[in-house]
């Protein structure tokens, strides 16, 4: 399938759920080892890893410090993701979305219904 360009949300995917209003708690957030193992494996395989978060730029340093302390390997960190859970990505490239359901594992192929633009 070639190189994947993965955008991975920070919240509850790699560590404890820290409310955006309490970013100082990120320093003590518990790491989910399965996330570290899989994400670093993807990085080592040559895939592009970009983390994104709805935390603001004011919280970039503490967020990068946590990622680096736990030895996550990544290419970029995007801040200021719009808050809310009903995301709809429109792009001129094919977009594969994977909903996180509580554990990082290898990805497998599955069929799903998606919305497309009417001809």
Supply the CATH architecture. 3-Layer(aba) Sandwich
What's the tally of helices? 2
Radius of gyration: 15 Å
- Strand element count: 3
- And the CATH topology? Rossmann fold
Dominant shape: globular
What is the CATH C level class, in words? Alpha Beta
Mean pLDDT: 82
Structural class from helices and strands? Answer: alpha/beta
Amino-to-carboxy terminus distance: 27 Å
The ordered string of helix (H) and strand (E) elements is EHEHE
Largest sheet: 3 strands, parallel
Stretches with pLDDT under 50, minimum 5 residues: none
> Widest sheet: strand order?
1-2-3
* CATH evolutionary superfamily: HAD superfamily/HAD-like
Beta-strand residue percentage: 5-15%
Q: What percent of the residues sit in helical stretches (DSSP H or I)? A: 10-25%
> In total, how many domains does the architecture comprise?
1
Explain how this protein is built:
The protein is α/β, with parallel strands linked by helices and 119 residues long. It has one domain: Rossmann fold, CATH 3.40.50.1000. The protein has two helices and three strands, in the order βαβαβ. It has helices at residues 33-44, 60-69, and strands at 5-9, 48-52, 76-78. A three-stranded parallel β-sheet has the order 1-2-3, with helices on one face. β1, α1 (33-44) and β2 form a beta-alpha-beta unit. The longest helix is centred in the N-terminal third of the chain and has 12 residues, at 33-44. It is globular, with a radius of gyration of 15 Å.
């Amino acid at each position: 399938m070639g190189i994947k360009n993965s955008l991975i949300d920070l919240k509850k995917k790699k560590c404890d759920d820290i409310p955006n209003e309490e970013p100082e708690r990120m320093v003590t957030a518990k790491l989910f080892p399965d996330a570290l193992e899989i994400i670093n494996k993807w990085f080592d395989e040559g895939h592009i890893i970009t983390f994104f978060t709805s935390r603001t730029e004011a919280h970039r340093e503490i967020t990068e410090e946590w990622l680096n302390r736990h030895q996550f390997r990544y290419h970029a960190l995007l801040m200021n993701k719009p808050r809310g859970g009903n995301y709809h990505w429109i792009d001129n490239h094919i977009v594969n979305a994977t909903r996180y359901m509580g554990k990082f594992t290898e990805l497998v192929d599955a069929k799903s219904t998606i919305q497309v633009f009417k001809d």
